[in-house]
Amino acid sequence: MSLNISTLLSASAHRYPDKVAILSEDRTMTYAELWHQVSRLAGSIRKLGITPGQHIALLLPNIPSFTLAYYAAHLVGNPVVPLNILLKPDEIAYHVRDSNAVALITCGDLQGDALLAWEQCEELQHVIIYQTQKTESLAHARRPAGAQLHTLESLLDHSHPIEDYHATSPDDTAVILYTSGTTGRPKGAELSHFNLMYNAEWVLKLPKEMPNHEMRSLVALPLFHSFGQSVLQNATVMAGGTLSLMRRFDPLLAAQMMQKQAINVFAGVPTMYYGLLNHPSIQPKMLASLRLCLSGGASMPEDVMRRFDKTYSVDLIEAYGLSETSPVASSNPIGGGKKVGSVGLPIWGVSFRLINEQGDEVTETGVAGELCIKGHNVMKGYYRRPEATAEVMQNGWFRSGDIAVRDEEGFYRLVDRKKDLIIRGGFNVYPREVEEHLYAHPAVLEAAVIGVPHDKHGEEIHGFVALRAGASCTTGELIEYCRERLAAYKYPRFMSVIEQLPKGPTGKILKRVLRDQAKLQNEMA
Hints:
There is one protein chain. This protein is α/β, with parallel strands linked by helices and 525 residues long. The chain folds into three domains: 7-191, Rossmann fold; 249-417, Rossmann fold; 422-524, ANL, C-terminal domain (GMP Synthetase, Chain A, domain 3, 2-Layer Sandwich), CATH 3.30.300. Helices cover 31% and strands 26% of the residues. The chain has 16 helices and 28 strands. The strands form six sheets. Strands 2-1-11-10-12-13-14-15-16 form a nine-stranded mixed sheet, with helices on both faces. Strands 17, 18, 19, 21, 22 and 23 form a six-stranded antiparallel sheet that branches. The protein is globular and about 65 Å long.
């Protein structure tokens, strides 16, 4: 049996060739045009000598080239590795090396960081750049021996559409999504064609006030994230709908696009809904065309959901999932019956269970336990991380690390996280990475990083440090030090310098004490 995610596009291109597939700032593409370009790029990938099964990294914002490269790579059997566009060169290099990517596709806006990362990646044999802005820099770019630099435009101009598919099995890896977790360096979750196909199909089964092929989805979520890929890109393409791409979310611009383009599907993290709700220039009539609104990536504040529903006369639905679950694992019912503050019920084909610290199943309602997930959406494992995979995959159940309770109707509510993962604006930040950078500062003796509540971002990053004897450093200097070395969503916005960090009897830093201290500081501010 063969199954390939690129068939989502090919089927829609044959059904709706003249329909607009993608709207963006500078171009409009019909399904026929998109499929033709995908076929040509797929031919180029083969012509470059990239063989099926080799990995292709994508460092691209929400532009048509992401969708183009995504489906072209799948068409010839190459798993894709979408990278966060906020990563710095060293971080890009780590992801490329760890995933064994042999090619990287990027764009002019990001070519500087991509080329700096390339210098560190001996196995990266091809870099492909779309809309090159500084062509003079490409000729002199340092590159590994034998590696080749291309422009996407040139490859498309000198290639022929591919005429045959590479047959992939349902369990073959389609995407490697890097997830930060809470300890160690980021790990690549391997998602299969089957994982992604069923997650996209879940969206199309949701009750909507329009046929699926009339979906007009505003894509403000980054396409490198599983939420944007599965719930918006793959589902809309599968339906034969239209993707309206937004490079970076801005509440007013999003509302204007919704009004002008009659957007009827929107999915976002809570901070996006917060922005749409609180912008002084956004009027309810601007969002009048919305028929399906989904929230995920972080817990939705109950007050925000209630006010959004009332202000815009929609039924905002909270869902839940992780990169490791493709991502959707549960959702509130649509069309009535949702429970505000809950992540709903497991989606079709997915099972939940709660376990206590001893690993025994929690069967009582209202009793907290770690949420475990089983179903068609669960990843194959972490790429080249058998030990890390074994830690979270037990007898087919994925241990999420989230603590939840189940009510008498089977709805789940998240109450805590087992570990110290920080979710800022829908992005996962693990404290250890930030702490390692703080420890590298010559004035820092000890460091700890926590998440603190934040109205807009859900959580904000707060660092605590104790300085070395005789050293001096301001909080502003420490924040700037991190900002220069970490992606924008990772560096602390709050910093405290204290005499010593609180510790337990074993010497472990007590982050719960730091959380109490941060809360007190916030109350006194």
